[in-house]
Amino acid sequence: MDALSEVLQDFRLSGVNYGRCELRHPWSIAFPQQPLLRFHFVSQGPCWIHTEEQGWQELHDGDLVLLPQGIAHRLASAPNVMGDSLKGCQVTKLGSNVCEVVREGTGATSTLFCGSMTLGACALSPLISLMPPIIKGCDVAGNDPIVGPLLAAMTVEATQPQMGSATILSRMADLLTARLIRCWVNCTGASTTGWLAAIRDPHIGRVLAAMHRNPGHNWTLESLAGLAGQSRSIFAERFSAVLGEGAAHYLARLRMQLAGELLAQNGMSVAEVATRLGYESEASFARAFKRITNVSPGIVRRTISGRMDMDFGF
């Protein structure tokens, strides 16, 4: 297995919340920046999306838009509709992480299925940061024969809701999002620098895969160079040239990304995380964490990370 495949095999998406929406024109909802992936599936329009970088774009029936970095954006039934229509919607909780959002009125009805997801492995954080701010399902459907049928199946499920439709839609959305991300990786052209170039490098890729597989191991420059099959000097120079930082700094950032995930989402104590990531003491881990993230691990642990109110349940 090549290094990229090894990292991607740990690709797990976990849905945080979903919302099935029936909104009567005119409507407009602003979505703030968040640390999670976000998607919107349009079963029936009208629907437009606005981002600061790309302005207004029309979304058509049966299309899905993925926002890998969860950037701030707005959905609306038309570009000239502003305000916050969510305040006038009836929000009904259908399950632990699914809600129904209804806006009454006399205008045309837009039917949407929206959601937020978190990655199950911090190993993919570098990959997500490289992706474009918006990916539309219709744009990649030609490169993946599964995407088109999945979008069609979601349209049927959303327009003809039956018992368990919300659960089925959420599982379809998880699968479709994973396919879109994998398709983007496969279609991305070759580059000589950056994370994708590094993970595809026959020497550096083996090292990255090992780091991500076991970030708490007592890695040294000698052991990493040995994995790469290179001398220490050649390995260090090549690693920095491709990734723009040294191996030690990359490993420290990787450990702190994982630490933040374990502290905020898994509820582990600071001491447990320190031990898991190979630190000899809680104090040395806390110093390293604050040096890289600018906050103490205790503050992160006390903060509920990455979950939105069910009032914003999509």
From TrEMBL:
Keyword Chaperone appears in the UniProt entry: no
Entries under Pfam families matching the protein: Cupin_6, HTH_18
Highest taxon in the source lineage: Bacteria
PROSITE patterns, per the entry: HTH_ARAC_FAMILY_2
Keyword presence, Transcription regulation: yes
The entry's keywords: DNA-binding, Transcription, Transcription regulation
Transmembrane segments: none
Domain HTH araC/xylS-type: 205-303
Protein name as catalogued: AraC-like DNA-binding protein
